[in-house]
Amino acid sequence: MPTMSSDASPRGSRIEALPAGPLDIVGDVHGELQALRELLRLLGHAADGSHPQGRRLVFVGDLVDRGPDSVGVLELVRRQVDRAGARVVLGNHELNLLRGQRKLGNDWFWDEGSRRDAVFEPYARVPGELRAQWLQWFDGLPLALLRDDLRVVHAAWHADSLRRAGHGEGPLAGLFARWDAQSDAGLAAAGWAQRAAAEKAAHRHAFADPRYAMPMLEAVAHCDQQRQMGNPLRVLTSGIERRAQAPFYAGGQWRFARRVPWWDDYADEVPVVVGHFWRHWKPAQPPHPSQGDGDLFAGIAPLDWMGPRGRVFCVDYSVGGRYRERAGEAAPQTRLAALRWPERELVLDTGERHPTRRFGAPAR
After folding, report:
1. What pTM was computed for the model?
2. Contact between 258 and 138 (Cβ < 8 Å)
3. What CATH number does the domain containing 26 carry?
4. How far apart, in whole angstroms, are the C-alpha atoms of residue 330 and residue 320?
């Protein structure tokens, strides 16, 4: 895998500056308004956006979906942005809405009565007349934030993707489609798309069958990897993917490329804070069903910084799965967390506070 480093911090219209001073960096909220209110209270942020020490809030994206009140979360966060200069980076769930994608957990926005989302009901629905306003707000969110001592992105700090996306012009949905089309054209010109189509056709009857002895489909794996890595918006909001060692079943189908722990190759001095990856608070906790491509935190303690220089921290502790706890399907294990910077202290919505560990040292 290429080294995740860069000679200089990327700049561009979609890569913006972090506020000066102390920060509270909040993990993926996923519509959990009650948890967010409690966390902000514990951090000392008032409803009007003020803080006695002048601390600023930074949100790593994925404010919405799955939880009971994405509307309330958006309204609260936008007040913090407007009144107190809080910052928000774009997450893959906001990007899905911009692209018009109907995904698990986002019918609160489309309000189309999807049976798929029955598990999440009841949930607050966005008034139809406000959808365009929220989409405009999402489209204006930066893809990454940085200053000399810190970087924040939703999923992966990848220098080439940041350079390309940072200077992309036009609406994000259009940029996404353009980069996908470029990847598809290149794969077709090289013959990979045709080979992948033939491989899929030979096994199409079994793609949704977890019991099937699926062989490795090399052209499919190559196309999946190239399509992910050729689109900088995919990389920044959902991570880096590579050909899998073997086929694996996840999300109702067989897959041939998987997410990788990109932080193992991050060599820069400047620390990076991300969300997205459903980190476990309790090491024995099994991966969430959405993580069928493996546990990226195997061997990494919940409070540890990651990577060869201990410079990457994931602040997402799976609060997006809290709906399962309310339904009695899982023990209470999820957390909404904030990393206090520069103190490197983790504050949880449960009231727990912990110093993080192994900053500047190799993760185990």
Report:
1. 0.94
2. no
3. 3.60.21.10
4. 13
